[in-house]
Amino acid sequence: MQKENLKVATIGGGSSYTPELVEGFIKRYDEFPLTELWLVDIEEGKEKLEIVGDLAKRMVQKAGLPINVHLTLNRREALKNADFVTTQFRVGGLDARAKDERIPLKYGVIGQETNGPGGLFKGLRTIPVILEVTKEMEELCPDAWLINFTNPAGMVTEAVLRYSNIDRVVGLCNVPIGMEMGVAKLLDVDHSRIRIDFAGLNHMVYGLDVYLDGVSVKEEVIRKLSDPENISFVKNIDGMGWQPEFIQALNALTCPYHMYYYKSKEMLDKAIDSSKKEGTRAEVVQQLEKELFELYKDKDLDIKPPQLEERGGAYYSDAAVRLITSIYTDKRDIQPVNTMNRGAIASIPDDSAIETSCVITKDGPIPLAVGDLPVAARGLVQQIKSFERISAEAAVTGDYNKAVLALTINPLTPSDVIAKQIVDEMMEAHEEYLSQFFKKEKAHLK
Amino acid sequence: MQKENLKVATIGGGSSYTPELVEGFIKRYDEFPLTELWLVDIEEGKEKLEIVGDLAKRMVQKAGLPINVHLTLNRREALKNADFVTTQFRVGGLDARAKDERIPLKYGVIGQETNGPGGLFKGLRTIPVILEVTKEMEELCPDAWLINFTNPAGMVTEAVLRYSNIDRVVGLCNVPIGMEMGVAKLLDVDHSRIRIDFAGLNHMVYGLDVYLDGVSVKEEVIRKLSDPENISFVKNIDGMGWQPEFIQALNALTCPYHMYYYKSKEMLDKAIDSSKKEGTRAEVVQQLEKELFELYKDKDLDIKPPQLEERGGAYYSDAAVRLITSIYTDKRDIQPVNTMNRGAIASIPDDSAIETSCVITKDGPIPLAVGDLPVAARGLVQQIKSFERISAEAAVTGDYNKAVLALTINPLTPSDVIAKQIVDEMMEAHEEYLSQFFKKEKAHLK
Amino acid sequence: MQKENLKVATIGGGSSYTPELVEGFIKRYDEFPLTELWLVDIEEGKEKLEIVGDLAKRMVQKAGLPINVHLTLNRREALKNADFVTTQFRVGGLDARAKDERIPLKYGVIGQETNGPGGLFKGLRTIPVILEVTKEMEELCPDAWLINFTNPAGMVTEAVLRYSNIDRVVGLCNVPIGMEMGVAKLLDVDHSRIRIDFAGLNHMVYGLDVYLDGVSVKEEVIRKLSDPENISFVKNIDGMGWQPEFIQALNALTCPYHMYYYKSKEMLDKAIDSSKKEGTRAEVVQQLEKELFELYKDKDLDIKPPQLEERGGAYYSDAAVRLITSIYTDKRDIQPVNTMNRGAIASIPDDSAIETSCVITKDGPIPLAVGDLPVAARGLVQQIKSFERISAEAAVTGDYNKAVLALTINPLTPSDVIAKQIVDEMMEAHEEYLSQFFKKEKAHLK
Amino acid sequence: MQKENLKVATIGGGSSYTPELVEGFIKRYDEFPLTELWLVDIEEGKEKLEIVGDLAKRMVQKAGLPINVHLTLNRREALKNADFVTTQFRVGGLDARAKDERIPLKYGVIGQETNGPGGLFKGLRTIPVILEVTKEMEELCPDAWLINFTNPAGMVTEAVLRYSNIDRVVGLCNVPIGMEMGVAKLLDVDHSRIRIDFAGLNHMVYGLDVYLDGVSVKEEVIRKLSDPENISFVKNIDGMGWQPEFIQALNALTCPYHMYYYKSKEMLDKAIDSSKKEGTRAEVVQQLEKELFELYKDKDLDIKPPQLEERGGAYYSDAAVRLITSIYTDKRDIQPVNTMNRGAIASIPDDSAIETSCVITKDGPIPLAVGDLPVAARGLVQQIKSFERISAEAAVTGDYNKAVLALTINPLTPSDVIAKQIVDEMMEAHEEYLSQFFKKEKAHLK
C-alpha cells in the first residue's frame, strides 16, 4: 500500500509529549512518509497547542521533510480522512490528576493513575470522551487505526473493544519497551539484541522469558533484578529491589507497576512522604511542564529538548511510530501492545484487552499464543482485569454502585467503607467531567 | 450397598469437636448404621482423647445404639479397613495457631488461619501429615473416603488431589451451611426451605443465587445483607455489614471470610485490638477448650454440651454426617463441598480443588456446572487459588522461595519484604513441624 | 410451590403419542396435580385430535382424577397462563417424514430423521414454528417451561436457546432412558437400580459410566454390549452388535443412533433394503398410526393400548412427566436432558445445547460438570454440534448456502455435490413449509 | 549466534527428494552457512543413498560452496552434534505404501497415506522409529531441532510431542506453501505478495483469511475457488471444484486434502478407477522414482532435475530450508508449521500438534492466537485430532483395540466391521514393521 496522502490526527496535540511523537515521525519518515499531522486540542489547551505546534513545525522544517503540521480546535476536521488517530489527551488536565493522587492519600490509599483509584477516575473521565471520538471516527475516517496512549490504557482499550463499533484500536504503553531498555542496560548491551516474551495486562505485564541474541538469559536477569541496585527501569518510579526469594520463585520479569502490588506498603509510605515534600507526581509534573513549555517557546529550539525525558514518557515516540509504521507497511514484526485477547491468554475472556507480544500486520496486531500464565501471576492479572471490566462498565453506564464495586475489589483498597468514601469525594471533585453519573445518580451523593 | 461392618476412623479424635461428630452419627444412625468409631490421636493428645472418648461412649450408650467407640494412639490400627476417614487434627495444637496469629500481627498483617499467613503455615505443617495418612490409606483402606475438615481445607484438598494417589477425598467446611442457616435466620424461616447455589473456593465461596421454597430471593437477601444489623452469620466472626452499593453491585452472597479481603483494614484493626484485650482467637479458644474439657470430664454428661457451640464449629456435625450418609446411601442430593473442579468453574484449572454445590453420589461429589464466575468475583478467587497452589507446592517440596512467593502474592500481605520477614520468623517458630524445609533450607534462615 | 391451577398445553396434541403422556400425568398425579390439559393441533389434525382427545378424556375419567382435558385448534388459548408447554408436533406430518427418508436414499444417503439430511429438513420445517410458539409464550405464559420432544430435539433446543427470548426450555428424548432400560434388561435387574453418567448431544449421547446399585459395572456392560445378541436397546433400531475391539477401546456406552456413524454402511444397506420391502420407517409408522387411531376410536378403550409401544416412543411418558414433576416439585434428582452447556462439556460452546445428566430444579436443569469427553468421542460430538449449529442458523435466516454447508459437513453425506442435489430436491419437496428460503432464495432453486 | 560448524543430518537421505533439499541449502547458503550435510539411510537403501548422495555432492561442487556431504548407514554418527535433524524416511518404502493404498480399496475405503487407513498404518510403522531417533538425539545432539517431513506429519509430531523427551520438534508440510502458490497463480501475482492465515491440522488446514499486499482478497479467491477450473493446487491431487454454495458458506480456504472429506465419494471412485488403470499413487511413484534414479546416476547431472517436480514434493525444499534458516537466524517471520497448540486454537488440547501460522524464532515456532475455528471447520478438525491422538497411542502402546478404534472413528471408514477387517489384513501385510503389536497381540490376529 502506497498512499499519496498520509494523515495522522493527534487528539490532545497540545501535550508536552508532542515533540517526542514528532521526532518519531521524522526518524521513520522513510518507512512512513507522513504528509499531514493534525494536532487537535480543546479550547482550554489552545495556548499550549500553539506553543508545542510551533515547535513541531520548526522540527519538521529543520528535518527538511514535506510534512504539513496543522493546528486546530476542530476535532472533526482533524479526523476527516485520517489514516491514524493517536490519543494523548488528559481530561481535566494535571489538576485532575493531582486530585486523583491527593484524595485517596487522605484515606491511606495510593492514588496511582492507572490501576488504583486514580486510574478508576481517570477512566471514568476518559472513556466517555474516547467513545465520542470513536463515534466520529466511524463517520469521518472509518478505516483509520486508533492508537491510544491515554492512560489507563488497558481500561480504555477494553472500553473501546467492548463498547464502541471500532475494531481498529491498539493500546500502547511505554512500559514494555522500557523493560527491554532496562534489561539492555542491566546487561550492558544494545537494545536491539534483547527480546522479551510479554504477557499480561497494561501496567501489569510480565516478561515470561528474556533473550539476548536469541538465547534465554532469564536466569541471569532475574538474579540481577533481585539486586536492589538494578531495579530502576523507568524514570518515574524509583526502584526498590525485590526480595531475591520472591523474584526467583516468581521466575518472570516484573514491570515497575508491580511494585504497587508486591510492595504496596513501601509504595504507599513513599507516596505519602513525597506528597508532603516535593508534592505528588502530578504536582511535580505540573512544574516540569511549565518549564518545558517555557523551553518550547524558544523560537530557536528546533529539536526535542533533552529535558523532556525527565517527564517520564521515554520511548513513547519510538513505540508509537514503530507500531504505526509496522501497521502501515504490514511489517509483521513482534511488538508488545494492548489488543483483544482472542484466546491468547487462557482464563482471560476472549473479548478483553490484554498486553502481550503480537505480530503487527496491516490488519493490526495478532497476539502470540501464551496459554496459561504462570500460577503466581494468574491471580493478580485476573483481579486487575475484573477491576478494568467493571470500571469500564461503570464509565459507560454511569452506575455509581459499579464504581464502588470496582474500587472495593481493587487490591490496593483496604475496604468497602474506604472505597465508598474515596468514590464519593472524588465524584464530587471531578463532577464536571462525570456527567454520566450526575444525570441520574445525584441523589446518591448527598 | 449394605455393609455388615461400618467403620469410621477419626484422625485427631481427641479434639473438642468430637461430641459434635458423635451427635451427628447418633442422629443419622438409621441411614448410616455405624458399627465402629475409631478415635485416634497422638501421644501428646492422649489425655484429651480419653476424656472426649469417654464422653463419646456415654453419648452412644445413652442413645442405645450398637456403635463401638475405640480409642487408640495407633493410626494404622484405626485406618485398617475403615470405610470413612475423617480428619480434624491440628498439627502443633492451639499453641501453633496462637503463633500463626500473633507473629503476623507484629508485622501489621492479619494471621488468619486459612487464607492468610496463618493459613500458609497451617498448610505447611498439615500437608506432610495428611500425605502420610493418604499413603497409609492406600495400603490399609484403599476404598475408604477421606473427609477432611482440617483447615486450610481448600489447600489441604488441593494437596491431596495433586500430590497423593488417593482420589476419594472431599474437603468439608461449615461456612456454606452456616450461610444457609444465616439466610434462614435473616428471613426467619426454617433452614430446610433455603437453597443456595454455591461456587468458589474454601473460605472464599459465593452464593450466586439463593432460593426460598425454590423461588429466588437473592434481591431481598442482598438488601438485608447490606443492613449492618444482619451480617453476623457465624459465631466466630463478628459482622460489620457491607456498604450497600458494594454488595448490590456485587449481586452475590458473600461468606464471612470475605471480610478479610473486602474489609481488610477493619479486620486488621479489630484483630490487633482483640489481641491486646481478650487475646487472639487461638488464645480465646484455648480457654474455651480448657472449660470444655472440664465439662467433658463430668461422668454424668452424656450429650453434647451446649457450650460447644461457642467454640465455633457449629453445623460441622450436621455437614459431616450428612455428607458421609449421602456417599454411603448414594443419595444424590446437592451439598457444597471441596472437590476437583473438572471444568465446573471456568478459568480455575480442571485439577484444582473448588468449593461448590455438588451432587453427592456413592462415587463422591460431582460438581454442578457453573461456567464463569461473576466478573467481580473472578479475580479474588483466582488469586486465592494461586496462593493455595503455590502454598501446597511449597509444603510438598520444602521450597523456601515458594513459601515467600505464596505469601507475597496473598492479597493480605503488604509487601515482599514483610512477607519474607513473616516467613522467616514463622519458620523458626514452627521449626519442629516443618522438617521438609529444614533438611535442605537451613542455610537460608540464618 | 403449590398452585391452585396447574395447566399443561400440548402442541401437536393430536399425536398418537398423547395417550402415553396422559398415562404419565395420571401415574404421577400425586406429585403433579394437573388440573387442565390443553391438547392443541392445527386444522389438518382436527380429526385425530378429537379421536385421541376423547381417549384422553376416557383415561382421565377411568382414573377418577379431576383433570380437565380441553381440545382446541386455538394455540393462543391453549398457551394462555400455561405452566408447562410440551411440543410433539410434526410439521408436514408423516408424509414429510417419508420424503425426508425417501429422497436421500435416491442419492445413496440415509435419510435419518435427526442428525442426517432428514434431520436437517425436519429442523428447517420445525424451527420457524417453534420460534413462533416461543414468541407467543413470551406474551401469554412468560413463566412457563417449554418441554420439547419434537425432533431433531438437539437442533430445536439449540435454536430456542440461541434465537428466542425464552430461557425456560428443555429438550427431551427417550434415548437415555431407553439406554438405562436396555442396561437393566441386559443385566436382568430392575431399572431403578441402574444409573448412567450421560454426556454428549441428542442422539449422540454416550454413557461415560454405568452403575448397578452405585457400583460401576461398565466393564461388564461393555463386554455384554460387544455381544451381538444384546445390542437391541430401543424398538425402532435393530441392533447389529459392535466389534468387541472397537467398543472395548471406546470404553463408553453408545446410544442406538451411534450405529449411523460407526456402522454407516450397514445402516444404509438396511435402509435401502427396508425401503424396498416394508417401506421406510415413516411408511411403516403411517400404517401403525392408522391402526392405532382405529383402536383409539373404540369408545370402550380407556387405557393406553399396549400396541402403542410398537410405535417407538417407549418411555416418553415416563421421561416427560418425570421431568415436569421434578421441575414442579424442585426435586433436584438427576435426569438426562437437553439444556445449555454452561461449560459442563469442554470444547462445546457454553451457549450450545448438550444432552447430559442434570440436576432438575425448579429453575430447570443444571448440568453436572463433565470436563472433556473421551478423546474418541470428542470428534464426532463436535462435528454433529457444528451440523446442528449451522442447520439452526440456516433455519432461522433462510440462507440456502448454509443449508448446503450443513449437509456437506454432516458425516453421513458423501460429498458437496450430492449434498446440493439432496438439498435441492428436498427444498422443492417441502417448499410449502420452507417459506424462509423461498421468499428470497427462489432464484437459486431453478 | 554464529556457529563455526553447522551440521544437518537427514534421516532417509537416500530419498529421491534429497536434491530438493540440497538445492534449498545451496540457495539459502548466505543465511544458513551449512558446513556438513549427513545423509543417512538403512542397509536396504544403500544403493539409492549412493546415487542421490553423489548427485548431492556434484550439486554442491557446482555451486562452489564449502558444504561437506557425508553418506552413511550409521545413524548415530550422523546425529552426533547435529544442529538440525531432518526426517524423510519411509518405513517399508513404496512397497508398504502400495499396500496402504491397495488393501483398503478392497473394502471400499480410500487408502490415503495421511489421514485415512493408509495414514494410520504409516503412523504405526513410523512412530516407533521416530521415537528411537528422538532417544538417540537426547544423547547425541540434545540441542538439535528435529524437522519432520515424514507423513503423516501431524500424527508423527503429536507422537513426538507427547511420547518423547524432545521439545525441539517441528512438523513440516508442503500443503500450506502450495496453497499460497496456488492462490498466487489463481490471482496471477507473485507468491511473495500473498499471505494466508492458516489454522487447523496437517492435511486439514484451513486458510481463514488471505491477503494480497496486505489487503484481504478472501472473497475474490473463494469466488474463483468455486470455479472448477481453478481448483488444482498441488500436483498430486486433481482438482474437482467445490459447489459454490458450499465454499461460500464455509467462507474459508480449503486444502487439497479436504476433498477426501467433502468429496469422499468422488475421491473413492477416482481412486478405484486409477488403481485399475495407471495403478495407485505408490505404484505410479515407484515408476517415477525408477526413472528419477536413472537420471540421478548421470555423472553430468549437477542440478536438481526438473522431472523431480512431477514427484509431488514441490516446495518442500523451500519450506524446509526457510524454516531451518528462520530458526537459525531467529528471524521471527511467520510460517505455517506443525507445533504444539499452547491454546492457540480453542477446543484442541493444549499439548496437541496443530498446523498453524507461527512466528519462527530461535526457540522454535510460537503459534499466533486463533481463538475458535469457524463452526463449520471445528467438527472435522476435532475428529481428525481424535483420530491422530488414538492412532499415536496405538503406535506407542501396541494396543490392537486402539488401532481398530482409531480407524472406526475416522470419517472415511464406513463401519467398525470394515475397520476391523482392514486393520487385520494390514497388520498381517505390514507385520515386519509392527513388532509392537505382534509381541503381545498375536493371539488376536488369528
From TrEMBL, chains A, B, C, D:
It comes from Virgibacillus siamensis. This is 6-phospho-beta-glucosidase LicH. Belongs to the glycosyl hydrolase 4 family. It comes from the Bacteria. Its cofactor is NAD(+). Keywords: Glycosidase, Hydrolase, Manganese, Metal-binding, NAD. SUPFAM superfamilies: LDH C-terminal domain-like, NAD(P)-binding Rossmann-fold domains. The keyword Manganese applies.
